[in-house]
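Provenance

Sequences were taken from public entries as deposited. Structures were produced by running a predictor on each sequence independently, with no templates supplied. The record for Aldolase from Edaphosphingomonas haloaromaticamans is shown for reference.
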Amino acid sequence: MTTFDDRERAFEAKFARDEEMAFRVTARRNRLVATWAAEQMGLTPEETDAYAKAVVQADFEEAGDEDVVRKLLGDLVSAGVDTDEARIRTALEAKTIEARRQLMEAQ
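Predicted structure for Aldolase:
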């Protein structure tokens, strides 16, 4: 019976690691895409840092990426940046890859 218990603990540990990594990738991605958006809006480095924190925080409003897309789109349009939802989603995909790469290199 210990073999099954060991396997169960191993699967639970792997699940926990995978979930933690997914959370870290998403948080890093949100920071990267916020920096991209801040550059589009012409924010200062201090404003960029505060904006990145706000975007990361916005991701906790609901499950999925809709809350982040909505915030970025609203902020970019308000700042007079010519953009659309498709461009933001493309940036999210690119920044997800970059975030995953950065985290893998850091390990």
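Residues 100 and 106 are 10 Å apart (CA to CA).
The domain at 2-106 is CATH 1.10.790.20 (Major Prion Protein).
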